[in-house]
Amino acid sequence: MATNQHEIYEKARKRTVQKKGFYIHIVLFILGASIIYSLTLINGFDIDHNAVNFYIAITVWFLLLLLHFVKVFITSKFFDQDWERKATEKLIQKHNKKVLLLEKKLQKSGVLPAPTVTKMKGLFTAFKKKREIILIAALGSNNELGKDNDLIWHLPADLKRFKKLTSGHHIIMGRKTFESIGKPLPNRTTIIITRDKNYKHEGCLIANSLEGAILLSKKDESPFIIGGAQIYNQALKIATKLEITYVHHTFEADVFFPKIDVTIWNEIKREFYKADEKHNYDFSFVSYTKKTT
Q1: Is 273 helix (H, G, I), strand (E, B) or coil?
Q2: Residue 110 lies in a domain
Q3: pLDDT confidence band for 17 (50 / 70 / 90)
């Protein structure tokens, strides 16, 4: 399995934030304990009456600090989401092997019929063999796409890359995505997917399904699917390539890109850029191709 560089970056960033929080906790504990202890030295402070409370407060705080340590350096490090995913995958693989062995035994004994080889037919299967179907999107650290039908960042370099990649091609999108753009983009053929069979817009092609949109773009060897979230979810199953811009920051959003399964997608290229006067966030351009089975 190819290493997913984006997941590594995000994991390292979150670990840094966790450690920073723990170190701040240590400093606060030392300061707090010192202040509480100093109170016992002040003239007039009833040390005999407050000694128990003092030790209880310090002990409870120390236990909380210890729990924080366990969470940051043990639980989060060794039993994180990656560990959970790998453990789940391992159990699924083990279960599938048992099911496969059982099927073979039943087929051998005649309880189940022997498997037959059939030719796969269908629109999407044929296209996947002959064409590239490309999804292009920009995502936040938690796969955020946007909010209130609009982008939640402004990255001129991403817009420039989008124009360069999609120029001369068909671009397929949902109606809401098109209406957020407002007009057909120059030097591209715009295909809008909508359930409204009476919907029309000058300069655009209209389809009532993703399948219909793919048929309308049949003369293009590399049509691009540009959103929104529902269209991405449908198209991810038939896409052959992904062009993703990762914005390395978390945002408040109401639409999200589906999770990219690294067991299916192979990262082939990555370009990282630091934030500057034109870009408020670090970002990466990443290309994926679907693994052959």
Answers
A1: strand
A2: no
A3: confident
